[in-house]
Design a protein that fits this description.
The complex is a heterodimer.
Chain A: H1 18-45, H2 51-64, E1 72-73, H3 82-91, H4 100-109, E2 133-135, E3 151-153, E4 161-162, H5 164-174
Antiparallel strand pairs in A: 2-3, 3-4
Chain B: H1 3-31, H2 36-42, E1 55-61, E2 68-73, E3 79-84, E4 88-93, E5 98-104, E6 110-115, E7 121-126, E8 131-135, E9 149-151, E10 158-163, E11 170-175, E12 179-184, E13 189-195, E14 206-211, E15 218-223, E16 228-232, E17 241-243, E18 250-255, E19 261-266, E20 271-275, E21 281-285, E22 299-304, E23 310-315, E24 320-324, E25 329-333, E26 345-350, E27 356-361, E28 366-371, E29 376-377
Antiparallel strand pairs in B: 1-28, 2-3, 3-4, 4-5, 6-7, 7-8, 8-9, 10-11, 11-12, 12-13, 14-15, 15-16, 16-17, 18-19, 19-20, 20-21, 22-23, 23-24, 24-25, 26-27, 27-28
The chains are: A mainly alpha, B mainly beta.
Chain lengths: 175, 378
């Protein structure tokens, strides 16, 4: 027999741990990007306004917008223009003077309808004794200020007759 | 590079990230010179005062036979869609309490529903990992409306969906696969994927989305990774900003009415108000709990009133606190009023004109709350 050593199989090639390497590389890439984002954010903070300015903006916004679910109406300092008031009385068209609070009023007044909790109860209208026209409409969400939906106008009245709650709004606008 | 070298670099990079996060936190802290309630008090403000009958339950919508998980209003015409564990979507006329549609779902495990801006279709999603679209004008087949489109692609549960305001064809979903997706409903295709393999995406399930009404390119998402993230739909590759602070899952997010801030609600029992642009945490809304309380209630859902003065927060306890957002005080608890829910409040939403709040509960009912008191002039 030949004394030559029997051929030895070659060792299998060293296979790198692909999953571990690739996973680590991917994580490293993510971390590098995260570092870049964080450095960017730290730099951007330099010019930022303090929280108090943001709080001021929040407070100003909240005070500006009328809210149907709040139990308060803030009296506006603006006076209703005489011609707008006169138009309201003579033409029986609920109109509104300009202004932030008033424009909200106009939006809701034109569709003035009872709130959720009350059905049309025209007898609640304070001018029911003199007003000849009463309009009670079906309920909707869109008029938060009205209690019964009664909108009446009377040719003999010098002002538009409205329900107790709307009277508050009327006073707001036309004092 | 060898694996050992990679590991070394990985350790160093992790330490750098942690150090930068700490530095960022400290820099931010320096800018938090006050919070909203501190500022409001300095201006002489006082809390809103509600009498017990100011906010009343004026409608109870009954008909679901399982826990309610989600609800949404139409932008107009006062209709509500609700989704329940009974495997149905119901569309209600909220004014008359009547049901206009009852849609039986293929998969009863629905988690979210939404009305299209035009009110003609509804979307829902859940544990089937898809978002299904139903056209309400479709011909009824076998007592139900057939699905008109299925949006497939998420690799996890669909937890939240919302149509892009004024765009019936675009919808955003959030999922257990850690991503949010912007869809074209007409084609069923994904337009953009937010998060996932890209860094700065969420690192856990995304439970909630809220699209900015003032700028519909921007939306925020809330996640089980305890963060909220701001996204620009035109840039899917990274989140615009990440908002830290919560100590638990962020279950719900909602933009503040001015479109510059947003609120969050979390498993840590707090709600928070963040400034979108600066990233500042402007306020924490938190109730004291007894030390021996076994279960601290989690915040399941939030909504702001039209002005943002009120923050409605639904809790797992069945409470629905009405927070004065300026003073950070609870001014009312709908959970203690007459006709309150008997179980967890799972969802709530304000009508488009801000005059009514709808709450949905595990007690199988929806309730509508509106102002029923007298207003004071100040």
């Amino acid at each position: 027999m030949d004394s030559e050593a029997a051929p030895q199989p070659r060792s299998p090639p060293r296979i790198p741990d692909l999953c571990g390497r690739q996973r680590l590389t991917a994580h490293l890439h993510l971390l590098s990007r995260e570092i870049a984002f964080l450095e960017e954010e730290i730099q951007s903070i330099e010019g930022l306004q303090p929280a108090s300015m943001c709080c001021k903006e929040v407070e100003e916004y909240v005070e500006m917008i009328p809210d149907p679910l709040l139990p308060i109406y803030k009296k506006t300092k603006k006076r209703c223009h005489f011609w707008s008031w006169l138009r309201m009385v003579c033409l029986d068209i609920p109109t509104c003077c300009s202004g932030g609070c008033c424009s909200w009023y106009k939006k809701h007044w034109c569709d003035c309808r009872p709130t959720w909790t009350y059905r049309s109860t025209c007898w609640r209208c304070p001018c029911s004794s003199c007003c000849s026209r009463l309009k009670c409409v079906s309920p909707s969400f869109s008029c938060p200020g009205c209690s019964c939906g009664c909108v009446c106008s009377c040719s003999e009245c010098t002002k538009v007759c409205i329900c107790p709650r709307m009277l508050v709004l009327h006073q707001l606008l036309c004092l | 590079m060898s694996v050992a070298e990679l590991k070394e670099r990985h350790t160093a990079a992790t330490a750098t990230v942690n150090s930068l996060r700490e530095r960022l936190k400290q820099r931010r802290q320096l800018l938090l010179d006050t919070d909203v309630s501190g500022y409001a008090r300095s201006q002489g403000r006082s809390a809103i005062s509600f009498s017990p009958t100011d906010l009343v339950c004026c409608r109870i919508l009954q008909g679901h036979t399982g826990k309610i998980y989600s609800l949404d209003w139409t932008p107009e015409r006062n209709r509500i869609v609700s989704a329940s564990q009974d495997g149905r979507l119901i569309v209600w006329n909220a004014l008359t309490s009547q049901k206009t549609h009852a849609i039986k779902l293929q998969c009863p495990w629905v988690m979210t529903c939404a009305f299209a801006p035009n009110g003609l279709s509804v979307a829902c999603g859940g544990l089937d990992s898809v978002c299904s679209i139903f056209n309400l004008n479709s011909h009824v087949e076998r007592d139900s409306i057939p699905v008109s489109r299925v949006l497939t692609g998420h690799k996890g549960y669909v937890y939240s969906c919302q149509y892009v305001p004024d765009q019936e064809t675009r919808l955003i979903t959030s999922s257990g696969d850690q991503t949010c997706v912007l869809w074209d409903v007409t084609t069923g295709q994904r337009i953009s994927v937010f998060g996932g393999e890209f860094p700065s995406g969420h690192t856990a399930s995304v439970l909630s989305v809220s699209i900015n009404n003032s700028n519909s390119n921007m939306f925020v998402s809330g996640s089980c990774d305890a963060t909220a993230r701001l996204w620009d739909t035109r840039i899917a590759s990274r989140a615009v900003r990440t908002y830290h602070g919560h100590q638990g899952d962020v279950n719900t997010v909602k933009f503040f009415p001015d479109g510059q801030r947003f609120g969050t609600g979390s498993d840590d029992s707090t709600c928070r108000l963040y400034d979108m642009r600066t990233g500042h945490q402007l306020q924490v809304y938190s109730q004291q709990h007894d030390a021996d309380d076994d279960e601290v209630p989690i915040v399941t859902s939030i909504a702001f009133s039209l002005s943002g003065r009120l923050l409605f927060a639904g809790y797992s306890s069945g409470d629905c606190y009405v927070w004065d957002t300026l003073m950070a005080e609870v001014v009312l608890n709908l959970g203690t009023l007459q006709n309150s829910h008997e179980s967890r409040i799972s969802c709530l939403s304000l009508s488009s004109d801000g005059s009514a709040l709808c709450t949905g509960s595990w007690d199988k009912n929806l309730k509508i709350w509106a102002f029923g008191g007298h207003r004071r002039v100040i």
